[in-house]
Amino acid sequence: MAISSKIESFLQSSSLIRKMFEEGAKLKAIHGVQNVCDFSIGNPDVPPPPEFQKILEEESLNTDANIHGYMPNAGYLNVRSAIADYINKEQKSNLENKHVIMTTGAGGALNVILKSILNPGDEVLVSVPYFVEYKFYCDNHGGILKTVPCTDDFDIDVDQFEKSITDKCAAVIINSPNNPSGKIYPEKTLKKFAEVLRKKSSETGRTIYLISDEPYRKIVYDGVEVPGIFGIYSESMICTSYSKDLSLPGERIGWLAINPSAENCDKIINAAILCNRILGYVNAPALMQRVVGRLQGVKIDVNVYKRKRDALCGILDENGYDYFKPEGTFYLFVKSPDKNESAFVELLKQNLILTVPGSAFGVPGYFRISYCTDDSYIDKSAEGFKNAMNEFMSGISQ
Amino acid sequence: MAISSKIESFLQSSSLIRKMFEEGAKLKAIHGVQNVCDFSIGNPDVPPPPEFQKILEEESLNTDANIHGYMPNAGYLNVRSAIADYINKEQKSNLENKHVIMTTGAGGALNVILKSILNPGDEVLVSVPYFVEYKFYCDNHGGILKTVPCTDDFDIDVDQFEKSITDKCAAVIINSPNNPSGKIYPEKTLKKFAEVLRKKSSETGRTIYLISDEPYRKIVYDGVEVPGIFGIYSESMICTSYSKDLSLPGERIGWLAINPSAENCDKIINAAILCNRILGYVNAPALMQRVVGRLQGVKIDVNVYKRKRDALCGILDENGYDYFKPEGTFYLFVKSPDKNESAFVELLKQNLILTVPGSAFGVPGYFRISYCTDDSYIDKSAEGFKNAMNEFMSGISQ
Asked: Which option is the CATH number for B14-43+301-397: 3.90.1150.10, 3.40.50.720, 3.40.50.300, 3.40.190.10?
């Protein structure tokens, strides 16, 4: 028992992903970084907007007393007010600063709310495809993540949820725009979903919370809007970060917002503040709180990602790939020509294209392209996608 | 079941502390902030050193690609190298960058290492007095914190530990310089302690890790040195932050270092990196990593705290208080004239002095003064300490 048995098993199962990264690094060493199209990770390539740079420089000059010191565990009141105002404008809600808790990224927000509400053995349901970290986040706090199949076009399958929710269900997580599919759940679906959650809450005698993980809310295309959840379902909370819309994933800054209409709103807020403290986060990083507080509504130029999306869709179209055209995020979820998507991901790798198998997101038979990367790699990938498809087709016809 | 039952009970038990804060706030509202000597919290009053300000401004100008993006979960390699070099100089150890993992403060480091090593029901032993958050940190990961009495002069009582360690014991935590006593555990004690840990590890058949929580290592007085733990006990790790020595508690930046001599060193490192990720920290804040990486060996002017300590000791001496003279930290642990220290803390509050009862640190009969506050409050407290003592003595003699 050198380390925790559970962590030991996690390490063993995550060795596949490590292996993938190592092989990617090896490929780059052999062929040169510029020749390997690494579409495997979601590390935004677009620089933060100029407003961020200006305000960061200003804030770093601030030498007021205690400016890098502790503030309340929930964060600076004025920052929380600015965010509450912004959410209210966006969602026509009526949040006050107390409803917003500054967190160490969306990962921090999710852990804080899950610890706040979960009892041992509680289930948390999520629609596939889903961000793989949710499983760990639930497990951290004694919960069990259960996956629910989606519809053919990656929407929430409300009927499947209705069948899957038992009295063990404490919460559902939605992630829209969705990583990895790029799907935005439409308002109509969400309203039907809320109806089922209300019905099931009443049947099971326990409140089913809706946790909306929204880091990609501002990375959307073609004028599609992401419906606000607060007006649709009262027992809800939003987790998000500035990792994608301000391109700051390394700075770990985000927030958790509790719906003021939730029946036990104040109790949830107090629980979340306590959990933010006792999970060792203590508070979200001070300087970045002050910076993002002044950047409400500012975002990176989404057209850059749109251009990349369209270029990639063009390449995929030309070579006969089937895929879901993303409405948001910087991911493309592509149907693997080979039913065994790991084999096809391997074939792509031989053609110097790194992607992630859909199994990692609960949907085998697909692979994910992360296109938050330099245009040159997208251009370069055309040949690899073509060759991989040809090689696969010729393998079939032999 | 609006929230987690456990968190609900935590909220109830922490309501006393909240009540204390609320009453303090009320006192300030009535008498004016400048008239209430708030010695209850440990939020450093000394500004960060000028070197910090200079480097923060420089680093905030950096607009390199991906400069606010993800880096490896363990942190920037060059920052980890700088820290490893510094530790090696300080402790004559032989760490490489891989032995250092950047964390979201010491709270993050403690949670990461506890999650890495604990199995459900495992015990973690700590000497009183102790930092109350340890209890939550252990509980977060299925562990149980057990307290062990200290010697009369707040040293580790090694014999008591020998009696208390069972085969459930996975780790011991030490905190030196100690919050709240200001004690620095001497090398002689630590060597004897290490001997017992080795003996007990061999008896119980499981490795007992020594987790050294050292955020106050550089806040020391009178030339006393804090012995390095890595040369004394191989199965050890250090958790720390720059919260106190650079006065940056709100920025949440620290590190975890694993002793290269630990038998399963690499396994522990991999576990810790995974836990840093899956606990939702993901990585320590990027900008602050780069800043502290360039500030190795830099610290605030400790003489400022020494002056405050000496002024307070003078006041306590004059008024017949018994206390342990702190060798480090910015806390003073004072024997309560009244056996019921809560009653005396209340008496002090009536005299506009806010302190924390020793029961909060596992040592009833004492109270803690946090003197990282403006000199004016220390001067002003003389009268309150005098009056409280007089009132208590006259109460006895009646």
From this structure: 3.90.1150.10
